[in-house]
Amino acid sequence: MKILVVNNHGQYNHRIHRTLHYLKIPSELVSNELSLEEIKSKDPIGIVLGGGPSIERSGNSIEYIKNLELPILGICLGHQLIGKAFGGEISTADAQSYAQIELEIITENDIFQGLGPKMNVWASHKDEVKQMPSDFDVLAKSDICSVEAMKHQQKPIYGIQFHPEVHHTENGPLVFENFYEACKRYSKSIE
After folding, report:
1. Helix H segments across the chain?
2. Residue 123: pLDDT over 70
3. Among candidates 114, 116, 111, 90, which has minimal Cα distance to 181?
């Protein structure tokens, strides 16, 4: 019943794992170089794709997105990798920043349950999802980014541009708790 946190070499990947530990959500921090078979052998209930410096250093993350039938939460670079894997467009942000922003939650389902309609979050906007994949819906936006969060229309796959693992994000732990609940629901639905 654990979540695997895929380390994409971002400065906060260890903090994601530590936050899950504090929330008593079983998790393991793993390399993005593990093969698909190695990931499957760990029998995870879900995957969190952490942030990182570039798509070039994301290892096998896109392979995990395309081939694992599991709930996935992509954070920052992880969000962008989900967009890329499903045919979206990733490019440099118009307003590059690393700061607190106000999120407008459009759909308060699954990962945003109990958090709407607005939320202050800490977000990195160097690159972002510019053109969302056609089989995704926008869950949240901000004044500087039209796709702050998205969800696949049929699968429990979520992408968020912001960092719920840092204390600057209000109610960030609830995002992880909501994702864990989504993982448990999905696991029961396939038993």
Report:
1. 13-22, 36-41, 61-67, 77-85, 172-189
2. yes
3. 111
Region 120-138: what's the mean pLDDT? 89
Residue with tokens 């819906």: 137
**Residue 53 to residue 157: CA distance in whole angstroms:** 22
Enzyme catalytic residues = 76, 163, 165
Confidence of residue 54 (pLDDT cuts 50, 70, 90): confident
> What is the residue range of 50's domain?
3-189
CATH number reported for the structural domain that contains residue 141 in this entry: 3.40.50.880
Q: What's the DSSP call for residue 2?
A: P
One-letter amino acid for residue 83 of the chain: G
Q: How many domains does the chain have?
A: 1
